[in-house]
What we know:
The protein is of the alpha/beta class.
Amino acid sequence: MSSNVLRKPTVRFVSLGCPKNLVDSEVMLGSLANAGYRVSQDNEPNQAESDIFMVNTCCFIDEAEQESRDIISQAINIRETLRRKHPGQDGYKIVVSGCMAQRYAQRLNKDFKGQIDGIIGLSERDKVAGLCDGLLNNGDRAVLRGARVATSERCHIDDQRLRITPRHFAYLRIAEGCDNRCSYCVIPALHGAYRSKPVDKALVEAETLVAQAAREINLIAQDISSYGKDIGSSLAELLRELAAIKGLKWLRLLYTHPAHFTDELIDAIRDIDKVVKYVDLPIQHISDRMLSAMKRHVTSGQIRDLICKIRERIPGVFIRTSVIVGFPGETESDFQELMDFIRDMKFERLGAFEYSREKDTPAYKMAHQVPARVKKARLDKVMSLQQGIAFRQNQALKGRSMEVIIDSAGKKGIYIGRTYGDAPEVDGNIIVKTRAKLSAGDIVNTRVTGNKNYDLI
């Protein structure tokens, strides 16, 4: 190892994208820490001393890819500034991992003119420490990309994580890959076929997270409602096993697919006390024309029936959904049908997105691409409609008693928390005022006294 890294080497790490990406980041950070590296997680590159700057990238949509590229460019520019200030010093090594590394390894080398020192794809995640050792010991540039599609035959085991979420909540990935092949989505082309994590492995990981003080576990995968189809199990069965873990208080389900939501799962959410009554159910659209073009494997009637069934059988349920506007061929009639549906359903939580035209997807080549200005106008209309719905629903909660998990403490007896109807880093907050001394992770009973836009008080 060169003289400038005889001390314990340091990795500065930026994690971008979804919670699934965050789990990969935590695993890589754990691997690096176990290999003797000092690691620090930061929101952006800076001039603090480090031997390696690493960014775990996302490229799900154009905005995510641009954010990843911006961070890489910042790191390169800062390194060049350091080299000018300190001639003869090489500066830190730059490593790119994650979905963008998997998808565009060769293009990244070209676009950034050879300034990236290491590129590590999804299939090679567990080799990150060896790659960094090689960069520091030999100065070698390295590309560990694997195949174009992540080729693991089994779901990765996400143990020995160095967690970067607050101690009291964590994400548990229960599957990788996807078989749905929605026409707008590049995930199957990167992550491969659906692979469930064995129940015993998921339980061990959950027990470890709880032992590390996690009181809330959020289950994640590209489609958790398909869990177990390849290993002779089901999500409902896994929930029953997880609920037996002592010390675990809340289980939350993220990323379910309406085509795979079973009666057994509805009953499990209703009957298992630790499963919060929160359903994340991305519908993407309600027009049968659009659902077919998107290859969502579900009809408008089935979505309507499912939502009605969930609300009838799970008292107090909060439903979060997401919709896409401006998909190729979306007419004003299709869009109006979506608006009417949102107005009728009054979703407790809703996110809306403009269609992002992604290469390597069937939708990329579809005719009748919707102009950007039309997509933006439709997005604004959806968000304006949902804002009014959300504000009225918050006002209707006034006087209601609700359990809240505390996320952080403020000043003078003011705390920030979430109800069971609010997923971390996605939904709103509740501002808790009390004379009691609370800590992050405490779950307390509160009475809603008012609201401030999307947040409750």
